[in-house]
UniProtKB/TrEMBL annotation:
Known catalytic reactions: (8S)-3',8-cyclo-7,8-dihydroguanosine 5'-triphosphate = cyclic pyranopterin phosphate + diphosphate
Subunit relationships: Homohexamer; trimer of dimers.
CDD domains hit by this protein: MoaC_PE
Name of this chain's protein: Cyclic pyranopterin monophosphate synthase
Pfam families (alphabetical): MoaC
UniProt entry tagged with the keyword Lyase: yes
Originating species: Stutzerimonas zhaodongensis
Domain Molybdopterin cofactor biosynthesis C (MoaC) as annotated: residue spans: 13-147
Family: Belongs to the MoaC family.
Summary of the function given for this chain in its UniProt record: Catalyzes the conversion of (8S)-3',8-cyclo-7,8-dihydroguanosine 5'-triphosphate to cyclic pyranopterin monophosphate (cPMP).
GO MF term set: cyclic pyranopterin monophosphate synthase activity
InterPro entries: MoaC, MoaC_bact/euk, MoaC_sf, MoCo_biosynth_MoaA/MoaC, Mopterin_CF_biosynth-C_dom
Amino acid sequence: MLTHLDAQGRANMVDVTAKAVTAREAVAEARIRMLPETLQMIQQGGHPKGDVFAVARIAGIQAAKKTHELIPLCHPLLLTSIKVDLQADGEDCVRIEARCKLAGQTGVEMEALTAASIAALTIYDMCKAVDKGMVIDGVRLLEKLGGKSGHWQVSA
């Protein structure tokens, strides 16, 4: 059984030594809601700090690679692919989707969730001077493929 507790009830990293190496993939999303004028500024490239989506994409990718440094007891993983997509969703929202892949012994759900979250936080950081009321929400796992538990997808 996989658990973060040892025989004495102390927290420890799960031992995945005996698990088979399989292809694994996870998709997560986050949303950041803002004033329509803020989103318009981002889309028109008028932000004084540069291309907000490009910076957020890079931040999400970097965060996925460092998830084990941010989340206690996460395994350091050699990710083979990280993709972060950002797009307007209506006139006041940006939807972020992060997809992480690897061939390994443990899943990549935390890496995808971290990538989406950090991309949203980066947008907040870059735009807070013009819109302090932005709201990050909807951070969730959308899909997980591979490993012993197989395929899981959020219900519509």
